[in-house]
Write a structure and sequence with these properties.
By secondary structure, this protein is an alpha/beta fold. It has one domain (3-67, 102-447): 5-stranded Propeller (L-arginine/glycine Amidinotransferase, Chain A), CATH 3.75.10. 36% of the residues lie in helices and 17% in strands. It contains 19 helices and 15 strands. The chain has a 3-stranded mixed β-sheet with strand order 2-1-15, sandwiched between helices. α2 (38-54) packs antiparallel against α16, α4 (82-92) packs across α5 and α16 (394-407) runs antiparallel to α18 (420-436). The longest helix has 17 residues, at 38-54. It is globular.
Length: 448
């Protein structure tokens, strides 16, 4: 039976703005309060989805969240009609309104952790929505994320869904941004690689000094238990605290893996040699041959990696066995990074080609190509059980492009977020989107 890695890309929401909400994310902080272009952001994301589909890769789409999140503001004491809630929040607590309008759910690498059926004890694909409790504006996402994933992967014979972990610091979970799976074939048993920034209970693990470590070891271990993963099929590794303090807020800013290959920066991890040996040993037990590509700091500094998002790229397996790297335009704009990529692809190694995409709207808020997609390994039967409305096709691309052009603004500032009309525009757009994607009622305004 054939198996596939399906990339489900996040559709950028209508309230895409540069709120500067993510402390520790250099791009998010440095572009705070600039004017954004939601329409351009959504179209850039759709263009990437269409391009990968045209290249023969399986591609899906994941719907955005309802924003502003009026219910979240009500829980914080703002009352009255929806319009009055927004007006009062804008007057009394603008930072809370900005947070409730964040379109950060576009970065669906943080939506959940996914384990394919070949790895799990019950032979189903398992999803655990990430609690994202390190940042308030992201911590309010997981209820809707769970409903959307449930509508996409509804067949309980093939798919199992878990609620987010307890929303406390000890179980900080950032989803697939800190999770990679290595395997020989997507439908075969593999090794799941969990990367954490700190331990909540074990003081032997060092912690960063400047920026928060968002993923805990305990959260990763809990997800592995929920998914029924075998000890021989799991490897845990700690991020280097010093790179977190340089702006590497998730592992996918400093490393990316696919198939049997890990592409990583020399300074990405602690105990690197021990980690590589464990990955090699465990993957060999299931018939795989682990390979790694280390980018030396002498060629690309951590600062270069953070500014260019070299590692927040998509590493894709092609039919001929070679690999394709999808990178943002910022990589071409960084002389050292581009020189490294040219030498990498000309060496005849594992990565044979680099394709560049303009994702400026996402990049300026701190998310590159890899942030925009959630990877789900599926066999043919499981893929057939996925809600067909969310699988990208040429007609769906055309429909979504028309939908964006119809409903999205081409300019968004902080003042625009205070406009009660924006909520009505968003709800109208999302109500139409759920019909396009055949999701049913997944948003609070559709349910309540």
């Amino acid at each position: 039976m054939k198996s596939y890695e399906v990339n489900f890309d996040g559709l950028v929401g209508p309230t895409h703005n540069y709120g500067g909400l993510s402390y520790g994310n250099v791009a998010s902080q440095s572009n705070s309060q600039q004017s954004s272009n939601p329409k351009e952001a959504a179209l850039q994301g759709l263009a990437k989805m269409k391009a990968l589909m045209d290249m023969g890769f399986q591609q899906g789409v994941l719907a955005p969240q309802e924003r502003p999140d009026v219910a979240a503001l009500r829980r914080l004491g703002f009352g009255g009609t929806d319009a009055e809630v927004i007006e009062r929040a804008a007057k009394e607590a603008m930072p809370l309104l900005v947070a409730s309008c964040s379109a950060s759910s576009m970065w669906v690498a943080n939506a959940a952790t996914v384990s394919p059926s070949a790895d799990t004890a019950d032979g189903r694909v398992h999803f655990t929505a990430a609690n994202l409790n390190c940042k308030y504006h992201r911590s309010i996402e997981h209820p809707t994320t769970s409903r959307v994933l449930g509508a996409m992967f509804a067949d309980q014979k093939h798919f199992a869904h878990h609620a987010a972990l307890p929303a406390v610091a000890q179980f900080g979970d950032e989803g697939a941004a800190n999770h990679t799976r290595f395997c020989r074939e997507y439908g075969e048993a593999g090794v799941e690689f969990f990367v954490f920034g700190r331990s909540a209970f074990d003081t032997r693990y060092p912690a960063p000094q400047k920026y928060p470590a968002r993923q805990t070891l305990e959260a990763s271990q809990a997800v592995a238990r929920l998914h029924g993963l075998k000890d021989d099929g799991v490897v845990y590794a700690q991020q280097n605290p010093s790179v977190i303090d340089q702006g590497v807020f998730h592992n996918d800013v400093i490393a990316v893996g696919n198939g049997e290959v890990l592409f990583y920066h020399e300074d990405a991890f602690l105990e690197t040699e021990q980690m590589l040996a464990e990955l090699q040993s465990k993957l060999a037990k299931v018939g795989g041959k682990f390979q790694s590509i280390c980018v030396p700091r002498s060629a690309v500094t951590v600062e270069d990696a953070v500014r260019s998002y070299l590692f927040n790229s998509q590493l894709l397996s092609r039919a001929d066995g070679s690999m394709l790297l999808i990178v943002p335009e910022e990589c071409r704009g960084n002389e050292r990074v581009w020189q490294y990529l040219q030498s990498l692809t000309s060496s005849g190694g594992l990565i044979r080609e680099v394709k560049v995409f303009d994702l400026k709207q996402s990049m300026q808020n701190g998310g590159g190509p890899a942030c925009l997609r959630l990877r789900v390994a599926l066999n043919e039967t499981e893929l057939a059980a996925v809600n067909p409305g969310v699988i990208m096709t040429a007609p769906l691309y055309g429909t979504l492009t028309e939908w964006v052009n119809k409903h999205y603004r081409d300019r968004m500032t902080e003042n625009d977020l205070a406009d009660p009309q924006l909520l009505l525009e968003c709800r109208t757009a999302l109500d139409e989107l759920t019909q396009i994607l055949k999701l049913g009622a997944v948003y609070p305004f559709q349910i309540n």
